[in-house]
Amino acid sequence: MSAGVAPRRSAVSEFFEQEGARAGVITVVSTVAFFGVAIVAVVSSPNWPRVRDQFFSWDDFVDAFPSVIDGFWLNVQLFFWSMLLIPVVALIVAVMRSLRGPAFTPIRLLSVIYTDVFRGIPLILLILLLGFGVPALQIQGLPTSSTVWGLIALTLSYSAYTAEIYRSGIDAVPESQRSSARSLGLTQFQSLRFAILPQAVRNVVPALMNTVVSLQKDVALISVLGVRDATREAQIITSRTFNYTPFLAATVLFLAVSIPLTRYVDWYTSRDRSERSQAGV
Amino acid sequence: MAAAPKLELIDVHKSYGDKRVLNGLSLAVEEHEIVCLIGPSGCGKSTLLRCTDLLDPIESGEIRLDGDNIADSGTDTNAVRRRIGIVFQSFNLFPHMSVMDNVTLGARRAQGRNRREAEDQARELLARFGLADKADAYPNKISGGQNQRAAIVRALMSEPEILLLDEVTSALDPELVGEVLGVIRELASRGLTMVLATHEMGFARDVASTVSFLHEGQVLESGPPNELFGSPQHERTQQFLRRVTEAGRL
Questions:
Q1: Chain A residues inside the 8 Å CB shell of B113
Q2: pLDDT in tens, A108-117
């Protein structure tokens, strides 16, 4: 079954193997030449010194970095907590929607309404609505922290998307699997839990991981609540110095997380695909 | 009064959308009997078996197991499903589980038996059907015939009173059909009550106590294999058997 499946290689080494050494030299020369010309063109343009001072000022970068990284710690925490909450909430919503039988109609309906509403509201609006709105109600027992409500908004919105991803995974499991689980005398819940969901989740891992990449950036939206995350800290400094380098500091931090994450997702997805094609699934 | 048949379907109706699949079907299966259902594709064989295991609800009629109507809304469907085993054409083992976990899932989760005891029983059954060394294998690593034998073991774990087999050899490579038919023969020799939907006419003739010819959602003709294959009464049955013979399947 595994015969004829080439071992996995990185895109770069694959490229060189296909093209041969001469082509490799051409690739290096043309790449260096292209980016060299582009950089020279930008740097030698008359506006470059102003751009450099505004966005790439080393001194401003060093000054801003400590507070921006402090703020970024909040982004990381938000990312962490929402990563714990979203898969759970989303799974509950997806399971509610895939229950069969007339008795479960209200539960299915609830799940449909939830996904329709929370997928339909722009995330930034939801964050404003909950982050400013709910604490203003001053209801006893509800948290008053904007950060907490920002986290709740993120969770509600992302769970709606993630529930749909789970659902597509559940739908992709053949109906015959459900039949054979039920034929063993398993209840509907047991069939989902032991037979359907493990296959469904496996189906959608790459899609879920893409959502994680997107979430990692969207935690920055919480800055609209005035919460001092990396974006907000950068904005505060910028409004004092009129220099935009602090934004670049925040950008660097987000990229430092999201690029490795994206590379990992790509690697995982291609590995998953080759495993599946070998297994004949 | 004679005892009620082990399984009895009375005037069963079932449609999928606009398509009427079972159209007043009646069938009786006595204990230890082996009933083979034959007939063209779409005649309702699979639906009959699915409905009997309560996987699809029927619209009207009765399905009696030991005289009790199990198509009734008050039935504990999960309990009934443990008394009736079903094996499907395409095996339907769970691909994310080893053969052992597939086979013991129902025992562990539906019946609440402990893992050790379930695995002991499973090992015994797997050995009986030549799968002793496949317990830890995953379904995609073993042959179709082995998959189907494992699926039969899975259905036998709850010690069902009736086994339903839905064209269990149709998805197999020809050289693997024999090993699965061998398993069914063995079960037949032990007196297990079985209902088989099958295209293997030679096998049906050999193993069946009754052969029922289904046509447009009804049992058109029933009888011992010699009678049904030897002197079919209905024109439809004759026609069907003629075609099967021409195709070299009888």
A1: none
A2: 999 999 999 9
